[in-house]
Amino acid sequence: MHSVDDRNVWINNIIDNPNIRYDTKRKKLKKVIKDMVFENAAICDEISRNQEKLLVVREECKFLTKKLKIFEPELDVPITTTTVKKATPRKKPTTNGVTPKPRRPAAKHKKNIIEVQEPITSGNVTIFNFGEIVYDTPFYYSDCAIYPAGFYATRTYAHFRNIFSKCTYHCKVIKAGSSPRFEIMDHDKHFKVTGLSTDECHSHLISLINKLLGADDLIPANRNGDRFFGLTLPPVRMKLQEAPESKFCTGYIPLELQLDCHEAELKAESDPAVSFEGLHNTLNRFRSRH
User: What is the rounded distance in angstroms from the CA atom of residue 148 to the CA atom of residue 110?
Assistant: First the structure.
């Protein structure tokens, strides 16, 4: 307990120096901020440890999947003992006493590629190839989209040199090691951009459109790269979800069979950053206001 004299001194100090109460509050806030910084550092360390554990589990999952593919066919085949005669190799004819070297058979790589019999059109997007799902690295999928290697689609949008004319842009997902590369190119191959994400490529195209309009932020990109590529369209997501490899994409959240989800995505297709008609509707509203 403080004595009466100490209290009087403290009250006199407040009267003489009214800022002392703010200094006390500042010290308390400083202590709280310091504690929060230490707590944040501890949480970051815990997250990094969990990410390392997650990578280990994914590698084990990949290893077990390969083992399962090796041993699964052998379980369905009955064990029979048969005697097979070894065929004697035929001697190849020699040319001037020189025996030609035998050719090695070409190795056949079986890929889990989702084939498309005919191009699928949804709005302004046409899908020509769904590609191959890569599930052993987290860079080939996100929470709302899968980035299959070899994915190829086209989208009709405003021309990067003349917004009043339409242009067909070719969108591709290219396999490049542990992380994919994304590409947008016009039909005449005068415009081509490659990036580490769909948003990076799409933002570059939108910046050219805004330069034509004379404003840097008139048409915001709004992180619509996945939508511009057609990767968030309900038919595309449902088709990719049917593949068994999609179950190993642990960070991906499957699209539910709900009508409101499909309607929301189709409504988002009218965004001026991905739709030619939506772009001109926005420009007309902007002109009418000014």
Answer: 16
d(CA 200, CA 223): 9
Residues of the chain with pLDDT > 70: what percent? 73
User: Quick one: pLDDT band at residue 22, thresholds 50, 70, 90?
Assistant: confident
What residues form DSSP beta bridges with 146? Answer: 141
Sheet of strand 152-158: strand arrangement: 120-122, 125-129, 152-158, 166-174, 181-186, 192-195
pLDDT given at position 111: 56
Report the alpha-carbon distance of residue 150 to residue 244 in Å, rounded. 17
Name, of 8-17, 86-95, 209-218, 250-259, the range with top average pLDDT: 209-218
Residue 169 is predicted with a pLDDT of 97
Say which amino acid occupies 272.
Answer: P
Distance between CA atoms of 244 and 133, rounded to whole angstroms? 9
Angle (CA) 125 129 134, round 5°? 115
**Is-contact 257 235, C-beta < 8 A?**
no
Compute the distance between CA of residue 177 and CA of residue 171 in angstroms, rounded to an integer.
19
Between 20-29, 157-166, 187-196, the lowest mean confidence (pLDDT) is in 20-29
Residue-wise pLDDT tens digits, 63-83: 787 777 766 554 444 444 444
CA dihedral sign of residues 227, 185, 191, 198: positive
Report CA-CA distances (Å) from 176 to 103, 173, 215: 30, 9, 35
Which amino acid appears at position 23 of this protein?
A: D
Residue 117 CB coordination number (10 Å): 5
Q: Please, what's the b/e burial string for 229-240 (b: 16 or more CB within 10 A of its CB; e: otherwise)?
A: bbbbbbebbebb
